[in-house]
Amino acid sequence: MARDHVDALRDGLERSSVNTPSHEAPAPDVSWDDLVTSALIGTGRRGTPVRPRPGRDPALALLDAAALHTVRRRAAALPVAAG
Questions:
Q1: What's residue 5's pLDDT?
Q2: What does the CA dihedral 33, 26, 55, 13 come to, rounded to 10 degrees?
Q3: Rg of the Cα trace of the chain?
Q4: pLDDT for the residue 18
Q5: Could you give the CA distance from residue 47 to residue 20 in angstroms, rounded to a whole number?
Q6: Which of the residues in the chain have pLDDT under 50?
Q7: Which pLDDT score, from 0 to 100, does residue 43 have?
Q8: Residue closest to 59 by CA, chosen among 69, 44, 74, 73
Q9: Which of 55, 59, 49 is nearest to 25 (CA)?
């Protein structure tokens, strides 16, 4: 019986949107300035430096790209010495 529950959970996870990316990762050459400019001018007037998935709001793709850019930048930062 426990195996049936595990199999049902596994099947549910495989079909869920958690395992499918919500955006395409921006190319490494997308600059922070391009992301900020698109955000300030608006995706309707300027577009986005990243291509959103079909049927997806370009503004959400822009926010995802900015978040990913920030995570990448922070991951490369060295820790500051204490004290």
A1: 60
A2: -140
A3: 18
A4: 44
A5: 24
A6: 16-20, 23
A7: 84
A8: 44
A9: 49
Give the pLDDT score at 78.
77
Exposed (0-12), middle (13-18) or buried (19+): which is 44, by Cβ within 10 Å?
Answer: exposed
Place of tokens 């990243």: 50
Residue that has been written with the tokens 């955000």 in this structure: 39
Both tokens assigned to 50: 């990243």
User: Using the 8-state DSSP alphabet, how is residue 78 labeled?
Assistant: P
Written as one string, the DSSP assignment of 5-42 is HHHHHHHHHHHSGGGS-SSPPPPTT--HHHHHHHHHH-
In whole angstroms, how far apart are CA 73 and each of 26, 33, 50?
Answer: 13, 14, 18
